[in-house]
Structure formats: structure tokens, C-alpha cells
Amino acid sequence: MAMKVSFFFVCFLMSFIFSSSSSLTTTTGSIDWWCTQTPHYQTCNHHIAYSNISSTTISINQFLDMTVAAAINEARSVQKRAQGIYLDYEPNALGKNLWGSCVDYFDGIVFTLNMVLDPTEQARPLDVHTWLSAGLTYINVCEKGFEMINMTNTMLLSISTELRELLLNSLAISVAIQGGSYSNNSRGLHGWEFSNEYKLLNSRNFDPDVTVAKDGSGDFMTVQEAVDSTRKEREWGERYVIFVKRGVYEEQVYIAHDVNFVLMYGEGVNNTIISAAEHSGGDLKSSATFQVWGRGFMAVDMTFRNTAGPNGGQAVAFLSNSDESVIYHCSIEGYQDTLFSLHFKQFYKECQIFGTVDFIFGNGHSVFQDCQVFLRKPLPGGGLVVTAQGRQYQNESSGFSLQGCNITAGEDLKPVIDQFKKAFLGRPWFDYARTVFMESFLDDLVDPLGWEDGWGHKDTAYCGEYNNYGPGSTTDHRVDWPNYEAITDPDIAKQFTVVEFIVGDDWIPTTGVPYVPGFERS
Ligand SMILES: *[C@@H]1O[C@H](CO)[C@@H](O)[C@H](O)[C@H]1NC(C)=O
Ligand SMILES: *[C@@H]1O[C@H](CO)[C@@H](O)[C@H](O)[C@H]1NC(C)=O
Ligand SMILES: *[C@@H]1O[C@H](CO)[C@@H](O)[C@H](O)[C@H]1NC(C)=O
Ligand SMILES: *[C@@H]1O[C@H](CO)[C@@H](O)[C@H](O)[C@H]1NC(C)=O
Ligand SMILES: *[C@@H]1O[C@H](CO)[C@@H](O)[C@H](O)[C@H]1NC(C)=O
Ligand SMILES: *[C@@H]1O[C@H](CO)[C@@H](O)[C@H](O)[C@H]1NC(C)=O
């Protein structure tokens, strides 16, 4: 069956590539036939082919819309069931908060899938592709949360299986569409028109819509109030600029998924600090000091901090699920699980990131360029691991690329470094985790093995290193995993540069933040 499916897809791809551009819209089949082309035929058939139009022939784009519509219905019903389970739990029962977060995640699936069907989005094929795989990431994060608190026998698996399969089907169709051609897709190929974009040629010359000041001299005294003031109609792409004056703001901040294009800037990382001390118990999302879900977020010159400390376990300082977000000159500070790059295309430039273990993690599709990565002193016997990337399926476009970064011990770790085992660059969090370090300075605290197999994904995960330097960069004794690669061919490494990996030329210029599109070192 699997062989047959991939054979057919190869045929599609060939026909897209080799015949006239109109073949995309002229390739048609019955719904049942299309279902046979997906990885989960039964689920497809059950949710779609019952319809009395099942004998008429449709195009691949029509079929994609139908599988997405079916996934939306299913996500709504799963969300309702999760809500019921959440309400049935006693207050304070183990796992209750986590069910609460899962309800939000399922809500996020409905929201994001609706974007796929919304013609005003003018989505590019890559957008559709990332929006579809977001749903899979949200389900995974819910599941992991229960694993972390050792609640494995929850209803989550049984209520979400069909939704997962519908999403995988949609993703496979979207991959087939993209494999053909990026141009002349029926959804339009114009990309996003950023109207009324602030011209941030000098990044310090922002013109704030509102100002937050602790001393009452601004429009608001808390950051969240300023965020809540943004829910007004704005033109697509027009930024809402929030200036946060110096001070330590002790609060958790939440930017919801319908609040797009917020630009927040402070007076420097040592001066404008948002800080909280929540930790997780499996519920990573609720521990976050700062979380952003809306698209096109920008942060400049400020600090996001979680002070739960090395005893706090998983404690997120910054969670980003913001597509096409740019974080510039910021400091992100915590211990375990500091920076949760959950999903979508993200760009971090000249940031400082502090932590002990798995402190850059998630299923983000992210480039970290010229960042200072500081490993901190863990608890006695504690481990040191920089990344934990969370890509689960080969059809997902996500991964982490760290370029031109410095991986070194922080001030607290330096004097006691001999008491700890060496640091790993990463441990793959899901099957097809994908992480690359390139053109970076790796200090002597990096273990000669380089990578650790924390969760048994070494046979499928991809880990790459290219043109790094420093005492920890020697690849002679690295892990012998099948997909570990000490990259020497620049054409392979090029795939992980800003211009190719996150198609940065399409969207970073509108922010005015400087970036290196290709390689930094020759
Ligand atoms: C399916 O058939 C029923 C009855 O024959 C009809 O009422 C309904 O409108 C049809 N639905 C679609 C989607 O064609
Ligand atoms: C879950 O179980 C593992 C292994 O038995 C244990 O080490 C860990 O502390 C447990 N975690 C929680 C949150 O109870
Ligand atoms: C990935 O997409 C391809 C192309 O559409 C499809 O053949 C394959 O089954 C998909 N893989 C999975 C695991 O869904
Ligand atoms: C895309 O469609 C437009 C208008 O339908 C046509 O002018 C153009 O040549 C097409 N481009 C490609 C690459 O086929
Ligand atoms: C922040 O303060 C620390 C300690 O005072 C100093 O080492 C660091 O250079 C400062 N960073 C910036 C960006 O000003
Ligand atoms: C990293 O360290 C090297 C050598 O210590 C230094 O020259 C470089 O400026 C640092 N890079 C960054 C991005 O801080």
C-alpha cells in the first residue's frame, strides 16, 4: 500500500513538473480515488467520501479544501470532548490544567485550519503547508505534557487519532501540490502585501502607538494592558508598536492568535525586563512568562525571563508560535526549557539565550543568527543540552538552524564547570527532529560526541554541523547516527541559511532588521 501511494505521488509530481502549468487544475479524480492517494485512506473515506457528490471528479485543490474542512469539523468535536474532560476533573487534580491548555491547542487548530480555507489570506503553498503541520505539533505538545507528568492513560490518544490522520492526509496533499510548482497555484501567488509597513531603517526610530511605564508616565503600567489595547482594526501588516520603558515587569504576558503584527521594544536587555516564575508540571504553555501566538511579532531591545530557577523544572521564559516573527537584540533567560519555539517561521538575531537543558526547543522552523548561547549551572548531576527540536514527520518543513552563534559557559557555570558532564548540542525530541549548527563558535564544554539520544530518535533524526570553529567543534568523535552529518558540501549547508530555510528574503526585509541571507564565513 505504502509503495503504491508513493508511486502515485511520484506520478503526480512528474505530471506537475513536465506538463503545462494548467495540469494542476486539470488533474481530477473522484473523492474516493483521491482518498486512495493519502496515507490514511480509511479515515479519509470515513470523513469525506460519504458525501453524495463522491462520484463527481474534483481537482487536487478542491480535495485539499475538503480534507481541511473535515479536519476542522473533527478538531471542533475533539475540542468539545477535551473541554468535557477538563470540566470533569476535580479542581487541582493532576492534569487538569494540562487539559485546559489542550483545549486551547485544539482551538488553535480550528483557527489555523480556517486560515487555509480563507481566500482573503492569499496564502502561498508554503503557508498552507506550515498551517497544516501546526495542528500536528499542537497535538504532540499536549501528549508530551501528559508523558511528563506520567499520565499516559488519558483519553487524549483515542480522541485525537482521527484528527491526526486527517491532518497527515492534508499535509501529504499539500506536499504533493508544492512538489509540482510554487507558481500558479489556485490560491494565488502574490505573497503578503505589507501595507503601511513602518519603515524601520533605523531600528531605534520606532514611533510607539502606546507606552508602558511602571511609574505611571505612560499609557499603561503593565505590558498585558498594552497588548489588550491592540484589538482594534488595523490594515493587514500594519504594526501596533508598544514601547516598554525601563523596569522589571513582573507579569505573564499573552498575545492571542488573532493579535497580529505587534512590535514591542524596550530600552535595552538590561533595562526592560519581563519576568515571572511559573513552572510547568507538564503544562509548558502555562509556565511561559511571555507567549505570542499572533503572526508577524517583533521584539527588540528587551529581556524575557523565567526565575523559577534550576529547581523549577520546565519553566518557559518565551514561547513563540508567531509565523514570520523577528526577535532582535533580546535576552531570553531561564534554566530548563527557556525558549519554546513552538511552530512556524521565526528569526532570532543577536539575542542572548540562557539555560541548562533543552533550552531551545519545540517544532519551530527557526534560524538563530549571531546569538550568544550561555549554558548555566544546573543542579548537581544535572545535564547540559542546548536544543531539543520537535519535528515528527518528514513532511514537515520545521527545524532549527543556529548560525554564527557562540556556545559557551555562562558566568555561573564557568568556575564550576569541572563538576559537570560536558554539554550536548542537542537531543532530538521527536522522530524527524532536524537541527544544524553552522559557522558557530563551540567552546570546550561541548562533548566530543556532540549529540545525545534522550528519547530514542537517533535512527531518524537529522543533526548537522558545518564550518564551526573553537575547541568543541571537532567532529572526529561525534555520534555515529545514520543521519548525523559533518557537512562539508556548502550546497547542503546552504539549505539551512536564512534565504533558503525560512525564505527570509520574502519577509525579513519588511522588518528592517539586518540579516545575513547566506553564509557569514567564507
Ligand atoms: C445530498 O443528497 C441529499 C438528498 O438526496 C440532498 O438533500 C443534499 O442536498 C445533497 N447534498 C449535497 C452536498 O449534494
Ligand atoms: C515519572 O516517572 C519517572 C520514571 O518512573 C520518574 O523518574 C519521574 O520523576 C516521574 N515524573 C513525575 C512528574 O512524577
Ligand atoms: C508525505 O507526503 C508524500 C507526498 O504527498 C506522501 O506520499 C507521503 O505518504 C507523506 N508521508 C506521510 C508520513 O504522511
Ligand atoms: C501563471 O498564470 C499567469 C496568468 O494565468 C500566466 O500569465 C503565467 O505565464 C503563468 N506562469 C507560469 C509560470 O506558468
Ligand atoms: C548587561 O549587564 C551585564 C552585567 O552588568 C553586562 O555584562 C552586559 O554587558 C550588559 N549587557 C548589555 C547588552 O548591556
Ligand atoms: C563569539 O566569540 C568569538 C570569539 O570569542 C568572538 O570573536 C565573536 O564576536 C563572538 N560572536 C558573537 C556573536 O558574540
From TrEMBL:
It is found in: Secreted, Cell wall. Keywords: Aspartyl esterase, Cell wall, Cell wall biogenesis/degradation, Hydrolase, Secreted, Signal. GO terms for molecular function: enzyme inhibitor activity; pectinesterase activity. Residues 1-23 form the signal peptide. Pathway: Glycan metabolism; pectin degradation; 2-dehydro-3-deoxy-D-gluconate from pectin: step 1/5. It catalyses: [(1->4)-alpha-D-galacturonosyl methyl ester](n) + n H2O = [(1->4)-alpha-D-galacturonosyl](n) + n methanol + n H(+). Residues 26-173 form the Pectinesterase inhibitor domain. The keyword Nuclease does not apply. Its EC number is 3.1.1.11. The active site is at D358. GO terms for biological process: cell wall modification; pectin catabolic process. It holds the Pfam family PMEI. InterPro entries: Invertase/methylesterase_inhib, Pectin_lyas_fold, Pectin_lyase_fold/virulence, Pectinesterase_Asp_AS, Pectinesterase_cat, Pectinesterase_inhib_dom. In the N-terminal section; belongs to the PMEI family. In the C-terminal section; belongs to the pectinesterase family. This is Pectinesterase. It comes from Deinandra increscens subsp. villosa.
